[in-house]
């Protein structure tokens, strides 16, 4: 298997793998955005900054406390999720009855503040984070070498996305969440503490972003701009999948990552814009998104 469609096989499959990895991060970040928008109706512009905080939390745990990658997978989402709940209680909860634009502006401002604080202390250059020893090396697939860690990122992202979908769609907690999006006063009348559930939901969406940041730390350099580079594409993914659609976010994230990878092979000049072209076409044909409801 030397060439496929005139393209060297290692190049084609390498770009597909890169697209699948990018798609894994698109899926996890858009999933968190969809969860938050589905219940809170907040367009959460801080999501990229919180993704960056997850990567920095992993770096700090390793360099300041000597706690490695596996500890970071546990501690960073919990810590950043708790930070997200504080943000929700102090700032975002005050805007639920106002126009969506206020939430957008507030979260955008919070993102700038968070990014500015990290840039002030750590600069703009990237900080390295080593791959754990258990996930180093590569598998020889015959037609290409696949780094073990990159394969792990794809599998882990699929697992966490599926677990989140199962919780929301197949559990009693998920039923309460979905009911609260339709009629919060009625759910509260049945004894459910809706404000607490909203805060926990926001924290859960933030924890997903932080977890994606931990997964990204060994691949991308840990820097204050790493969330900014992804968040605009992730918003496009959410719009294409359908605002608030959990399944749409996951499927669209992985699919668009693959499309982006293929575009880099066959038409490199269009790789930076292909997702936004798809978004424009989808909005013209189906304004609610591929999996969204009008």
TrEMBL record:
Listed transmembrane segments: 12-35, 42-62, 68-87, 99-118, 149-168, 200-220, 232-259, 265-285
Recorded coiled-coil stretches: none
One Pfam family here: BPD_transp_2
Record's keyword terms, sorted: Amino-acid transport, Cell membrane, Membrane, Transmembrane, Transmembrane helix, Transport
Membrane topology, as annotated: Multi-pass membrane protein
Location of the protein in the cell: Cell membrane
Alphabetical list of PANTHER family matching this protein: ABC TRANSPORTER ATP-BINDING PROTEIN, BRANCHED-CHAIN AMINO ACID TRANSPORT SYSTEM PERMEASE PROTEIN LIVH
Protein family: Belongs to the binding-protein-dependent transport system permease family. LivHM subfamily.
Name this protein carries in UniProt: Branched-chain amino acid ABC transporter permease
Annotated organism of origin: Caldovatus aquaticus
